[in-house]
Structures are given as structure tokens and as C-alpha cells.
Recover the amino acids of this structure.
């Protein structure tokens, strides 16, 4: 449980972080809370030569209400998000999801930006940003851009983030009626299945994590939905990359996906 | 007068533990200490083609690198127990080298050790050692290991069996009884492999001192003297008086720290080679790969009943994995710690168990909390509950029909089983009655029937267990293949001021000996607990000892201390009589003083102690000093028992089991500290629930462990269990002075079948008769689909 040797650089601004990324390229990894990266480094499964610590960059750890939107800084810890009254009042779905992440110690260190950038297919945030139609705000050498959540997740631990970009914030529309339902993996307490559902007029938006190699919007459920939770039957329609492990093989996982979507739709 | 015995005295050791001030091996830093890292095999079975250490030796901070070629520990580490074949053939015992030579036999087996100035540099250099392997097919399942053509773990013998052993009545007789039985219940299942997961990983420091040619080995072990014996007399062949083994605080063992591991011997050897201290601390992944595991039995069993539900015969065949090498206790676990408990708490007249114990390409198994007895209890309690369902009887009623009637072992004799043991005392009906009363069994059955109408899946599971503890009479275990005696040593040294130091061969790795032992010592001497210190875990301080496992500390270790206290009081009385100018027989000893009967003339324990060390006015011919050491070899095992009852609700959509209630009524004999006994029961129950619902070591077809971290190996957490409801009955042990039986393993032994019985009960109306452990949501859901 001792990582390979690495250099450590602390960035004091976003631009410094970006220029450090430019300097070290693929040898570097950005770290904030370190709760995904550091365990992988300790197992020597990840061995970056340089760590660029963005944790102390000012301005990345605020939660602000901007009209109909809530903007959560990338460096906000899960605990900070959980405790935020703005989040509890206007983004309760995020509160529900965050309170189910790991344990207190993990929530005190892990960050929203880190979790999304890491893109673990079983983590909780992806389902929520998908269902909420949130936007991932990123900054890089070429400047700032906003990536819709639906275009952010490209695969297993793979996102639309370019090599020299970092996440600065996540912009959520306020959500009046949303829910997050999670079936815990008993060892890691990650999601075997995590379902975020948001009421959208008469319709519904559903994000699912844990089931496929890439977190996804369950568009088949959304299309079939007409007020009844029966639409949950379509939770895995068209899916080709169902995950399988000794906690849940493909068949059971598909079944759980339907059960958890139904729970979510019932909870709206 | 008893001031402390029976009281929930708070644990003295917790102050330092809670403040992070415990002294674990990894906390020790010696001047000039080096660090080590192992190069371990990624293959389960492979030929080692070459090892190239050139690059690693040149790396920064490297002090030395050793491989098997360097001749370390020519003898290997020995097994502590010999179980021969039923046909008389000697147990097959492979040499267990300190570093693998030529061939790899399980993933994680050490190939080289790298010594460096820091732990980080040792790890970095270890990565530079280049080992070329030729991978070979592996076998990890004990049954498959015995199939013709299975890959062989050791080439020395014709097949993978270490031994093929049986116990009980004549097999043909048992088979005949089964054929004539009114009803026969049959089960085939796996009692799966689990990892003990002590919170403190194994850690060792070996320190060779050229002055006096002596070694000190600091080790996180459960039995320092046993380690010294195995290390000196077997693994390294060095003189025992030249080695001191120290284990101060140890953060949990659960059996996995009995084993004399290769790393202990290797570090001891290395320390002399390099002339400096060397430390190794396992990381969690290494712990999963190299700590001894528990269980791993494949079981096929038949139990026959007459028309009244009385058990008439029980026949079981098991394949029990040993792993790649024999650990210290491994052969004893599925045999003498397992088959001897097949009587359970029932009057079964005919019993036969056959055990084939194969080598597999996995890490070794060893004693794991309960060791053989949880496996026996799981079998008996599952098959009886299954039989009850098949015979349309209530599972509690079927148990009551078959219980051995109460006996106290004093007025009524002990109960002679069909499987070698004689139980000391027991009242099995009483614990189940009390357990059912605590649960409200009748009401629960009504609630369950109502719930079923509403589609809710509620179930209740009963388990009534017995265990053999307080291991054990040396002559008995010797006859059963133990290569050591299993007595204990208790040394009581009264200091001149009347303060008392107690040196025990038992070893605390979480049990609370410093508190409990001081409680009864203080009471027996009539002095304050603060005047009593308990010393353990240092072979230079404690004369000898066999360590702590098998719930033996109090019943065996405590009894040895009592023997010394008796000697102290006997000698003290002589001194007191002299000082009081009275006859010894005219003295009473109470509340820390000797009093001449019927007078107010007395002398305190402190004054007598001082006199013993300042013998100016002293009985003629009596030696000065007040210091006695005793060996206690018990006359029998002790037999705690109890009833555990679980209530579960199964989520019909997901198959997830919610453990709603857990009731435990245990009888552990007399209780010294109820809080500590409750704590032992709580912890044990949770560990047993862990096996039932969550924990499983999984090796894939190539022998790779797919559960080598807490991301994949599910440990029970606080929210996985309800508040545990405990109560006790008290049936004292008739053959030891404190009347104690042992409480360390009871929880683990009773709980696992209770939980699985409850899950099966919840689904029984759907036709479910068994579910393989751990009963994960996926397995439960699948069982419901079929």
C-alpha cells in the first residue's frame, strides 16, 4: 500500500494547473480529494509521475444559486454538498445521492469534480448529473467550455475531458422533484445500480449508473413513461455493455436496474 | 468476598488503545532498522524459470536481496498437528520453504525478499526483481483436487490428499441405519472460504544482537512461545535460549496469527545475515493473499430419523481444503476440532464422518474463530432445520425431541459422545427455551403467517450449538496428533510491597486479559485490582505458554494462575502463623489478611509479603520470597453451548436479506466480566453473520483471488446487523477452579446457521430448501426464481 515515487505540484490557480498539465502531459494526474486516485496509486495500479493538486485553488469550492441554477464548485467535498441548504432546498436529488456516497471520511475528502473526472461506472454522481441535465464546466488551454452531462461520459473511466482540461464547476438546473435510488454493493458500497429520476413536466428523465460500462440516460424508459412506473421494464433496453461481477451478473443486474428504476419512478 | 468477579469492570487496556497509544509491532522502531518487501508470485501454479536481481540490487537504498538459492531456512516451517490416513499411512506433509524454490504453489507465495533502508525503497526495488515463470494449470476446489488428472500441488505423492480420515461409528453400521430410517434428509453444499481480516496486519521485526549471539523477534502473534519453539527447533534450527519472542499489543487474530509464518522465520534469518534489525509489515492485499484463511469444506451429508423425529444416524463425507502447504493447525481443524463435535447437543446414536483433505493451489487454511466447530454446527443445524421442514415439524420441536438431557457433570456424569469426547456439563433445553422466550417465537410465527399473506417474506432461524473449548488435555491432544502439549503457565510474583505481577502464557490480542485476569487475581488475594499487573507476550518474561486460541485463556491460563495463587496463600499462611504466633489451621484468610479465628489478631497480605522478602523474623526452614509458577493441564475440554435465533426479512424484488433481530442465549459457564463476554458474543455473532451474508474469498479457475481488497471482499458493517439481544444461563464447568467454559468463539459458531436457516425459512413456501452461503442478494433472488 505504498505508491510508486511521484512528484507533487500544488497549483494556486486554474491557469497554473492548466499550464502544469501542459508541461507534464499524460505523465500527470490532477488530484483534489484523492479518494479515487490515491487508493489506485497505493495499489500501484495508477502510477502518475506528477500529481497536480488543485485542492487549494481559490474559488473552486463554492456553492452558488444563480437564478434557476445552482453552481457547485469542482472542489466541493461530498460533505460540503450534503450540508448545503441551497442543495437541500433546490437540488434535493443531489443531497440524496451524496449522502449515500461511501462513509463520513470519504465524504469529507472526496469531491464532486474528482468523482466526475474519474468516471467510475459505479459511482453515484454520473446518474444524477445525467438525470438533471447538468453541465460540466471545464477550463483548458483553449479556454472555457461547457459540456452537457449527456455528452460527458464516454466509457469506463473515460470522459470528454481533454488532456489539459480540468473541471471547474457543475451547473445544475434547480430540480423540484427528483429522487436517487441506490442498491449498494456490499463490499465497496458503490452502486450495483444507482438510478436518478427527475420529473420533467409530464415526462421523466432517468440517469443510471452501475449497470453499464458507461453511465447512461435511460431514454427507452423516458419514451415509454406516461405516468406509470411500468416504464421501468425498459431500463436496459438496447444496452450492450452490461457489467458483471460476483455481486451481480448481467441477468441479475438487468433485473435490479428495472427494480430500482421502478422504485425511483414510484418515489417521484 | 468477591469484589470484582462477575462485575463489568471497564477494560484497563482501552485507555491506551483509544488514545492511539497501543504498542503494536509496527509502532516499534529500532536503531539501524531496515525494511523489507517481498517479491510474490502472480501465478497460482508455475515453474520458476529464472530470477534476476541485478537491477534491483543496484537500486537506491537496497541493503540485500535473498532468494531460495541463498539457503535460508533449509528446513521450512513445520505443521503443528499430524493427522494420519485411516489406513495407517502417515500424513503427507510437504516441506514449506521460506522462499519458493523451483515451483510456485499459490498466488502470493514469496520468491524473494528485498531489504532496503526504507519501506518505500524496498517496494520500489522489489518491482525491479525479474522473475520468469512458466504458468501451469491450478486447482482451487478441494473436491476437484481429488479428481483423476487434477493438477498436482506437490509432485511427491500420487494424488493431492494430505490425509483421508474418519471418526465415529462403523460406516457400514451407520449406512445400514440410514437405509432403515423412516426419513432421511440429505444436503450437499460448500462451507466457503473466508478471510480472518484482523485489523492489524501481520508485522514482524527481527533483531540479531551479536553481543550474546541473540535474536529478538517482535511479532504480531497469538502464541509467542509456540512461535519460538517452531522457529528454533524446526524452521531455523537455532538454540531456543538464544531467541526472545515479543508480542506486545496485537490487533486481532481470530486464529490467523497462530500459524508460524514463513516471514517470521525468514526475517529472523535475514537479521543475522545483514547484522541489522529488519521489519516487514503486511499490507492489506498481502494479508488477503498470504494470511491463513478459514473453512473451505465441501460437504455431503445424510441424517436419518425415526417416525417420531428422533435422529437415528448421521453420515457425512467432506472434502476439506488444506491450501498449498500445511499451516500450524490446519490438519486438526476439519478433524479433531470438527468431527468430534458431530454429536452436537443431540442423542444421535450412530455417527460417521469421513474427511479427505487435499492440497489446493491456494493459501493455507488454519484455525479461524471457532475452527472446525462452526463448520460442524452449520451442518447439524442446517440439516436438522431442513429435516424439520421435510417432516412438517417445527424446527424447535425437532430439536427438543433430540436434546441430550441436562447433566451437571458432578452429580450426573459427563455425556459420552459417539465421537471421542465426553461433555463436561450441559442443559441444552434451557438455552433454547430461553431463546424462544426472548424472541416471542409463537407470536413471531403468527406474524410471519400474516406477513406472507401480504407478500412480505419473513423468516426465523434457530441454531443450538455446542463447542469444545479450553484446548486441552495434553495427553488427549497428543493422542489426536498434536505435536505440542496444550497446558498453560501462570506465574504469580508478589513483590515485597505486596503488589502483584502475574505472568501468563495466554496472550491477549483483543480479549481483555489485563482486566479479567486482574479481576479474579485481586479477588482471590483480597487486594485491589490496581495492585495487580498482568504481563504477557514476552518469552523472556513469561516462563512458557501455549498462547490464546480455542477460547482457552481463562479456563486453562486462568486455572494455572489460580494454582499459583493457592501456593502463595499456602506459603503466606505459614509466614502469617509465625508472625501471629498461631497455628496455621487457626487462621482464616479474607479481605487481604490472615486472622486468628475468633480474635482480632491479624496480619495483612502486604506485611506478609514484606516479611517474605525481609525474613528477619521468619519461620525456620522456609525459603524467603513469595513467587510461584504453575503449569495447568486440564482434565477435559470445556463445552459451552447456546441457542441463537435470527429473524430476517427478504426483499422480494431484490433478494436482499435484512437481518431484523438476533437473539443469543449462551451458556459459557461462570462469567468473570459480563461486559467482556457480551462483547465477545457481539463480535462473534457479527463475524458469523459476515460469513452467512457477506464474506467470501473467491479464487477463479486460474487460482487468482478476485476478492483481494475491501472493494470486493464484503466485511459486515454496523448497519448490516441489528442490536444483538443477549442472555445467559449458567452451567459451571465442573473441572476447573473458576467454573468457566470460554466465550471467544461462541458467537461465530452459533450465528451462521441461524441466519441461513432464517433466510431459507422466509422462502420455504416458495419451495426453497437451501441457498449457498454467503446468501447474497443475487443468490437469494436466483433461488426465488427457480
Amino acid at each position: 500500500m505504498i505508491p510508486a515515487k511521484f512528484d507533487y505540484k500544488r497549483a494556486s490557480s486554474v491557469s497554473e494547473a492548466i499550464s502544469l498539465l501542459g508541461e507534464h502531459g499524460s505523465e500527470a494526474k490532477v488530484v483534489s480529494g484523492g479518494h479515487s486516485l490515491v487508493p489506485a496509486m497505493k495499489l500501484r495500479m495508477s502510477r502518475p509521475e506528477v500529481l497536480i493538486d488543485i485542492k487549494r485553488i481559490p474559488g473552486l469550492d463554492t456553492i452558488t444559486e444563480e437564478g434557476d441554477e445552482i453552481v457547485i464548485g469542482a472542489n466541493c467535498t461530498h460533505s460540503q454538498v450534503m450540508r448545503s441548504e441551497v442543495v437541500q432546498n433546490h437540488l434535493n436529488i443531489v443531497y440524496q445521492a451524496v449522502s449515500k456516497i461511501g462513509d463520513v471520511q470519504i465524504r469529507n475528502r472526496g469531491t464532486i469534480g474528482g468523482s466526475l473526472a474519474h468516471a467510475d461506472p459505479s459511482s453515484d454522481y454520473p446518474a444524477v448529473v445525467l438525470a438533471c441535465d447538468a453541465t460540466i464546466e471545464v477550463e483548458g488551454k483553449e479556454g472555457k467550455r461547457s459540456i452537457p452531462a449527456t455528452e460527458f461520459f464516454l466509457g469506463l473511466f473515460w470522459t470528454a475531458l481533454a488532456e489539459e482540461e480540468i473541471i471547474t464547476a457543475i451547473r445544475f438546473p434547480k430540480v423540484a422533484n427528483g429522487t436517487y435510488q441506490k442498491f449498494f454493493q456490499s463490499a465497496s458500497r458503490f452502486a450495483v445500480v444507482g438510478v436518478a429520476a427527475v420529473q420533467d413536466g409530464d415526462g421523466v428523465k432517468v440517469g443510471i449508473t452501475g449497470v453499464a460500462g458507461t453511465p447512461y440516460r435511460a431514454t427507452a424508459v423516458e419514451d415509454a413513461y406516461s405516468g406509470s412506473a411500468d416504464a421501468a421494464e425498459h431500463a436496459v433496453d438496447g444496452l450492450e455493455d452490461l457489467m458483471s461481477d460476483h455481486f451481480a451478473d448481467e441477468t441479475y443486474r438487468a433485473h435490479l436496474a428495472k427494480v430500482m428504476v421502478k422504485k425511483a419512478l414510484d418515489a417521484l | 468476598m468477591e469484589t470484582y468477579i462477575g462485575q463489568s469492570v471497564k477494560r484497563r487496556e482501552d485507555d491506551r488503545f483509544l488514545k492511539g497509544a497501543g504498542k503494536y509491532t509496527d509502532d516499534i522502531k529500532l536503531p539501524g532498522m531496515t525494511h523489507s518487501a517481498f517479491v510474490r508470485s502472480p501465478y497460482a501454479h508455475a515453474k520458476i524459470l529464472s530470477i534476476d536481481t541485478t537491477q534491483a540490487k543496484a537500486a537506491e537504498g537496497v541493503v540485500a536481496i535473498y532468494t531460495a538459492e541463498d539457503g535460508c531456512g533449509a528446513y521450512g516451517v513445520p505443521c503443528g498437528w499430524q493427522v494420519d490416513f485411516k489406513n495407517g499411512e502417515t500424513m503427507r506433509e510437504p516441506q514449506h520453504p521460506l522462499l519458493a524454490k523451483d515451483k510456485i504453489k499459490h498466488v502470493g507465495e514469496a520468491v524473494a525478499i528485498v531489504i532496503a533502508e526504507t519501506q518505500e525503497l524496498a517496494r520500489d526495488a522489489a518491482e525491479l526483481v525479474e522473475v520468469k515463470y512458466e504458468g501451469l494449470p491450478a486447482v482451487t476446489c478441494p473436491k476437484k483436487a481429488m479428481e483423476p488428472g487434477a493438477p498436482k500441488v506437490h509432485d511427491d505423492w500420487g494424488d493431492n490428499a494430505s490425509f483421508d480420515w474418519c471418526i465415529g461409528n462403523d460406516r457400514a453400521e451407520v449406512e445400514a441405519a440410514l437405509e432403515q430410517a423412516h426419513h432421511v434428509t440429505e444436503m450437499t453444499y460448500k462451507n466457503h472460504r473466508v478471510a480472518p481480516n484482523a485489523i492489524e496486519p501481520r508485522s514482524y521485526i527481527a533483531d540479531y544482537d551479536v553481543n550474546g549471539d541473540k535474536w529478538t523477534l517482535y511479532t504480531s502473534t497469538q502464541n509467542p512461545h509456540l512461535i519460538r519453539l517452531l522457529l528454533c527447533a524446526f524452521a531455523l534450527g537455532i538454540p531456543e535460549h538464544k531467541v526472545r519472542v515479543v508480542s506486545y499489543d496485537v490487533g486481532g487474530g481470530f486464529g490467523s496469527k497462530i500459524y508460524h509464518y514463513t516471514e517470521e522465520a525468514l526475517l529472523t534469518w535475514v537479521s543475522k545475515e545483514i547484522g541489522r534489525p529488519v521489519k516487514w509489515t503486511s499490507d492489506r492485499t498481502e494479508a488477503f493473499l498470504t494470511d491463513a484463511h478459514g473453512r473451505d469444506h465441501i460437504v455431503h451429508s445424510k441424517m436419518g430419523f425415526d417416525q417420531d423425529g428422533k435422529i437415528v444416524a448421521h453420515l457425512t463425507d467432506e472434502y476439506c481444503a488444506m491450501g498449498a502447504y500445511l499451516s500450524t493447525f490446519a490438519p486438526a481443524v476439519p478433524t479433531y476440532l470438527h468431527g468430534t463435535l458431530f454429536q452436537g447437543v443431540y442423542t444421535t446414536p450412530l455417527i460417521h464422518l469421513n474427511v479427505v483433505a487435499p492440497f489446493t493451489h491456494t493459501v493455507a487454511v488454519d484455525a479461524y474463530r471457532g475452527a472446525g466447530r462452526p463448520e460442524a454446527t452449520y451442518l447439524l443445524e442446517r440439516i436438522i432445520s431442513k429435516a424439520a421442514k421435510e417432516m412438517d415439524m417445527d424446527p424447535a420441536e425437532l430439536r427438543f425431541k433430540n436434546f441430550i438431557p441436562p447433566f451437571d457433570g458432578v452429580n450426573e456424569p459427563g455425556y459420552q459422545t459417539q465421537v471421542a469426547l465426553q461433555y463436561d456439563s450441559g442443559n441444552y433445553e434451557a438455552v433454547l427455551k430461553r431463546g424462544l422466550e426472548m424472541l416471542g417465537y409463537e407470536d413471531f410465527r403468527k406474524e410471519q403467517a400474516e406477513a406472507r399473506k401480504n407478500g412480505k417474506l419473513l423468516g426465523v432461524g434457530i441454531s443450538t450449538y455446542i463447542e469444545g473449548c479450553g484446548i486441552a488435555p495434553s495427553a488427549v491432544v497428543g493422542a489426536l496428533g498434536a505435536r505440542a502439549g496444550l497446558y498453560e503457565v501462570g506465574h504469580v510474583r508478589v513483590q515485597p510491597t505486596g503488589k502483584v505481577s502475574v505472568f501468563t502464557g495466554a496472550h491477549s490480542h483483543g480479549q481483555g486479559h489485563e482486566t479479567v485476569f486482574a479481576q479474579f487475581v485481586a479477588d482471590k488475594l483480597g487486594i485491589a485490582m490496581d495492585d495487580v499487573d498482568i504481563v504477557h507476550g514476552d518469552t523472556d518474561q513469561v516462563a512458557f505458554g501455549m498462547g490464546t486460541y480455542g477460547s482457552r485463556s481463562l479456563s486453562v491460563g486462568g486455572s494455572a494462575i489460580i494454582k499459583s495463587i493457592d501456593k502463595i496463600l499456602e506459603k503466606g499462611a505459614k509466614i502469617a502463623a509465625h508472625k501471629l504466633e498461631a497455628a496455621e489451621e487457626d487462621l482464616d484468610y479474607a479481605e487481604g489478611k490472615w486472622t486468628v479465628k475468633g480474635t482480632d489478631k491479624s496480619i495483612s497480605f502486604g506485611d506478609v509479603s514484606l516479611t517474605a522478602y525481609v525474613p528477619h523474623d521468619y519461620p525456620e526452614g522456609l525459603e524467603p520470597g513469595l513467587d510461584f509458577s504453575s503449569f495447568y493441564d486440564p482434565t477435559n475440554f470445556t463445552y459451552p453451548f447456546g441457542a441463537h435465533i435470527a429473524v430476517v426479512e427478504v426483499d422480494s424484488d431484490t433478494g436482499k436479506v435484512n437481518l431484523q433481530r438476533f437473539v443469543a442465549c449462551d451458556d459459557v459457564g461462570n462469567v468473570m466480566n459480563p461486559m467482556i463476554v457480551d462483547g465477545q458474543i457481539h463480535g462473534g455473532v457479527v463475524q458469523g453473520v459476515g460469513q452467512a451474508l457477506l464474506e467470501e474469498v473467491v479464487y477463479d479457475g486460474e487460482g487468482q483471488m478476485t476478492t483481494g481488497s475491501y472493494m470486493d471482499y464484503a466485511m459486515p458493517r454496523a448497519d448490516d446487523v441489528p442490536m444483538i439481544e443477549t442472555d445467559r444461563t449458567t452451567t459451571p464447568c465442573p473441572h476447573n477452579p473458576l467454573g468457566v467454559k470460554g466465550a471467544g468463539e461462541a458467537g461465530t459458531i452459533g450465528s451462521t446457521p441461524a441466519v441461513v436457516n432464517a433466510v431459507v425459512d422466509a422462502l420455504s413456501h416458495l419451495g426453497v430448501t437451501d441457498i449457498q452461503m454467503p446468501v447474497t442478494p443475487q443468490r437469494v433472488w436466483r433461488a426465488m426464481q427457480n
